[in-house]
Amino acid sequence: MTPSTPWPYPRWVAHRGAGKLAPENTMSAFRLGASFGYRMFECDAKLSSDGVLFLMHDADLKRTTNAQGTGSERSMGELAQLDAGNWHSRAYAGENLPTLEALARWCLANHYFLNVEIKPTPGQEEATGRACAALMNRIWPADRVQPLFTSFKPDSLRGAMAVAPHIPRGLLVDKLADATGDADLKMAQELGCQVLVLNHALWTAELVAKVHAAGMRCSSYTVNDDWAVQRLIDLGTDGIITDRVDLFSPAV
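RESULT FIELD:
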């Protein structure tokens, strides 16, 4: 049994733009992912000190820029001056940290789909969710397929739901709260989610059936091996987030 409501998103989602082939969460990464035929992109969104949403996974700047310290403690003007590419390879030296708005407008211009993982700096869970929703309310046309908001943080999803209840939401789960998955499914339902996004190893036939019976979709991260992909397809899951944009054809 699968949900009766049509699911408008592609099965395949490019993780942080192009996985590990380019510096994550940069425009070069998203363009590279698109060059492999991907039409849906996952990104991580945080708030700068002056309230601008920018793309970065870690709270600390050290791993993916030439700076250190908490990214959210800097203004967008300061963040925009950092090198977010040289850590990956010299070919990308000088790459900028993009804003979420810049990525969203690129997706709109190219008719791509967007999965925004609300990735708040600790203490900014609800505020980051609200800011993501307010941004999409302002720039995303009502007649286009809306972006998908996902988060590990229930408060971020609550914030997004309060500001933009029409934008679909998904709960990210790395470890099930109980052996059956019932607690996570219940939380996703309480948050009005349309999809449950699990660490791919957590899915079982029973849990897929349970989530589908609840009218929700089943998605997985981060899936980089052939055997894992085949298992998820055989289980009847709906979405696959991957780093291996060079290995898996999004047309499948």
